[in-house]
Amino acid sequence: MDAPESCWHCGQPAADSLFCAYCNRLQPPAPDYFRFFGLEPRLALDPEDLQRRYYELSRKLHPDRFLAATAAERQYSLEGTAILNDAYRVLRDPVARAEYLLRREGLEEVSPGRRTPPELLREIFELNEALEAFREDPRAGRAQLDRARERLRALRQQADAELARLFRLWDERRERGRLEEVRGVLERRRYVSKLETQLEEALSDVGAHPD
Amino acid sequence: MSAPIQIDFGEAARPPVIGIDLGTTNSLAAFMDLTGPRIIPDPAGERLTPSVVHCSAAGEITVGHAARRLLVEQPERTVYSVKRLMGKGPADVEGELRLFPFRVVPDSPSVIRLELGGRQFTPPEISAFILGRLRRNAEAFFGREVTQAVITVPAYFNDAQRQATKDAGRIAGLEVLRLVNEPTAAALAYGLDKRKEGIVAVYDLGGGTFDISILRLHEGIFEVLATNGDTHLGGDDMDNLLLAIALEDLASEWDRDLSQDRVAVQLLRRAVIAAKERLSFVPVTTIEFDYQGRGYRRELTRPHFEQLIAGIVERTLGPCRNALRDAQLKVEQIDEVVLVGGSTRIPLVRQAVRNLFRAEPHAELNPEEVVALGAAVQAGILAGSLQDKLLLDVTPLSLGIETMGGVVEKLIHRNSTIPASATQVFTTAVEGQRNVLIHVVQGERELARDCRSLARFELKDLDPLPAGMARIEVRFLIDANGILSVSARDLRTGRQQSVKVKPSYGLTDEQVEAMILESYQHAQQDVRERQVREARLEADRILAAVEKARLDEAYLELSDAEREAVEQALNELLMVYHADDHLLIRAHIEKLNRVTARLAERMMNRAVRAALEGTKL
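YS: structure for the whole thing
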């Protein structure tokens, strides 16, 4: 699935594009998400521009358009659209996009759950207390749980704001240190989301079985 | 064969692609006209074909309205609602089969086999009879062969149910160009004529399934944001509730348990369905049932009916909320709501939709026809006649693989736009291990045993290596039909790796091939019928042309003998017209052609002369 140097159909140099510049045949898709969208690898992206590009590429690539084409083109269209859809799913979500770019730059994520971010220890302790109180007596424990929920939401929003700032900084200067900072914030954010999920599950459990 | 006296403008070179709504209760076909999608009626002018199949003692198959009439007389030879059995194993439908009059042969755990009149059929074969009927209706309508179709499926159908539907198409001799989700098809039909933009929710409650889909319409792109549903929720469930009440009444009033009497149950089912349908238009009605000289009447008010079905209607709201959440939308962001499926005629259902979405739902298009119309639109897109429209649909269920301890690792999440793909690298656990088994499941639960098993893939003939050294990259690809395929590559050698697939439910490719072959043999009768039908169409054309020519002045210019020969050939063709022999009909068409050759020549000369005189003026 690596992009070939020359067009499979006419043999002319196909370079880096989806369609051959000479015979306009669809080429085997290149798997890089940014390149697929014709974008520089960036952390901050304009969602409207991305959506416009996505629709435009979908119109060109979708299997609906290649029903009467050769078997090779039909296959490229299917695989290309699958990559396009996967790429759009990842690039439109800032967190998934950052994770993708980190992997692309060779920064593997720290395996999740291996290390608890120390700045969250207090939060975790308080959440567990609130959950325990809530399970014992949902009515009385509700207020405490709601406060924990608010704090977690604030932490997540804070992480998002930090990410946005780091995204801009990296896009300007491309300093590797920034990416490591991004990785740290992502890790914290992932942890916060996990706590939020725990909390929502506890709430829906009680909601589903009111005594 | 030439017909010299008619001027043929030449039909479109491409054969028509039809759109088919293969429904639980009714099925119908449509096609894309120059003006928009249109329903294809059967030769009697009926638009709906009941999804009912009957097999006689002699093995003769009857489909549609005639089969529905036979359902009452011979319920054990008649299948209905077969869509509920598609892609299922016998264990899945055990409870439900008690409500069906037909017998299931205990055979394989992965495929259901129904026994009808001494023959056995799988659900895809039964569905193929329905598709075949729609196909023949379309061929009679167009007067030419139809081989390609778009078929709709509930959005919430899993891989096996989709595969079974595609198999049914193949067995019916149709190339299935695309499976389209029913609510999405409805959105296509609605969004076609008007230049609509915005967020649309499609609420689709049919006979056996419920779907909710949320779409964004933007410059001709129909992007599905989320879909949800229940493949076991629909009007049939309401019928069963009413049926249970009526049977209970009869047990006390007549002191008879009719629940084992198949004929009685079918008649009673019809009676409660009729009452249910009337209640959508009147506030009170009566269930009327006459059997073996006795009569049963029970008044049914709308409030009572609504109380009965409240639970069923309520069950549709959870999936709606889940779809909104997955689309990351609030109710207020929904611009329009579209109703699909016969059950949305029920006032309580409309009320529930109105309350949830806080908007007046659209039902301008007939809810029983809108899905077929949308399928025809997609057929038009695929045939290239609607280049500015594009449908981007999603997979309704997450796809995952079973890992250690039976835990599912999700590879493609639900509501991912399709085609979608994921890759995963596998290795071996034991030194010298030659194959790896991968269990693929579909569903949202944590444990594989709580999800739907799709298939087991076996990576075979690996090079023997120390444990953990092999690196096999497996690529999972869901195509635009929502159907999974798997390929594998050895990362060390770059070689394509063979994958053996064993579907958990449904038919293998070989089984489908065998069925296609068998249907060809049964189809020889059909082929003869088609040849006769085509010959008659040809005869119709020449008869009409000759009728018209007889009014032309050129006819009077012929000699008496020539005129007599034309009259005689005409009468002969009319006499053999109803014979079941296409060769005989064709021979007489040929004869009529011959004796009218001079007439045609004269008419042509006159036409040319008239045209030349015209240009002089």
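YS: worth flagging: Helices of chain A lie at 33-36, 47-61, 71-91, 94-104, 121-136, 138-173, 176-208.
IM: good catch. Also The mean pLDDT of chain A is 82.
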